[in-house]
Amino acid sequence: ALNTSEPVPLNPPLPRGMGQVVYDVHAMGNPCLWWLSTAAIILLLLVLVQRLLEGVGWKLPLTPYTGIALYLFLNWLANLLPWVRVSRCTFLYHYMGASVFSGLALAWLVDCWLSSKLPQHKSAGATVIVMVLLAFVFWLPIYLGLPLSPETYQLRMWFRSWI
Fold it and tell me: Using CA atoms, how far apart are residues 82 and 78, in angstroms rounded to an integer?
């Protein structure tokens, strides 16, 4: 302390430059990939409901597309449902089995869009790929524990639950 009104520091002084760099490792995954794969599951469900309503009675017309969509959705659901009623604290790894199928659903939809003849579908597929790649590069310092300034670290932590 320089005078009697200044509080006395309780800790030893930090070396010069400390506190100006954040090193942190988060195994949170790519948020863009998580959110888009969740949207892919919702889209698969909507497609399946639409095909079910188009069918005669409650019979689902089974084409290769509806078969793949049904396979992906049912496997995602089968891996998610055991954890839905768990009342204790759940963790991200409980969703890992289901995340495989949501990721496959997104990959399958992107493949369908890229192999479509419609330019809107092709651009949607390419946009998804670019978004996931840019998000990966953006959050890469968090995955690898690379040094970040406090401002750039906070820029990557969109929600308080991520910190």
Answer: 7
Q: For residue 87, what are the CA distances in angstroms to 37, 90, 124, 138?
A: 25, 8, 39, 34
d(CA 127, CA 134): 10
**How much of the chain is in helix, strand and coil states, percent to nearest 5?**
65, 0, 35
3-state secondary structure of 62: coil
Give pLDDT tens digits along the chain (163 positions): 567 788 777 777 766 666 678 888 887 889 999 999 999 999 999 988 888 887 766 677 778 888 899 999 999 999 999 888 887 776 777 888 999 999 999 999 999 999 999 999 999 999 999 999 999 999 999 989 899 888 898 899 888 877 7
